[in-house]
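Hi C.,

You asked whether I'd gotten around to modeling the 188-residue construct. I have! Everything is below, sequence then structure, no commentary in between.
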Amino acid sequence: MNGQNSDKDLKEKRFFQNPLNKKIATSGIFIAVGLVLSYLNPFGYFLIFGTKINPFAHFINSITGILLGLDFACIIALDIAILRFSFSIGTIHAFHGGITGAFVVGMVAYFLRKKFPKYVEFAALTEPLGTIFLGGTIGHLISGNIFAIESLYTFWGLFALSCIPGSIMGFIMLMILKKAKVTWEDFF
């Protein structure tokens, strides 16, 4: 009887030590947290020039791009965007706004892991580069005002209002997690 319990415990322990299993389980948690935070977002209930500002999506992007990597960060951003859009707490702009930010954080974190692993958490602060300039430009292009430069600046400004506070919150959370000895190394 005791031998059977130890075999079961050993299998469970190996299951949770597998980095892929950790990433999948953690992804599910981040998707759920991202959706709940979207409901708590006071800006998520009214449109501002066709967008709904949600700093918490960028908060999640900043954390997942570093802890889980590029692929999982983009998948999580896509899943949160789908859920926000489905529940009408996000617009079509949630897709390109979130995924581009997660992509840039994941890419920068990847290169920092290779060259400067001590500074990987600073990749969280690059999230606005993807969201504002890539996501905002895509938003401008799909808005139909491609010849109005004011429209481009409007989208950049709105995306900046959303992603800058979110990336700063994400960076602060990563520093708190680092002090608690939870780092990207736990997932790779």
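If it helps when you're writing up: The first helix runs from residue 2 to 17.

Thanks,
B.
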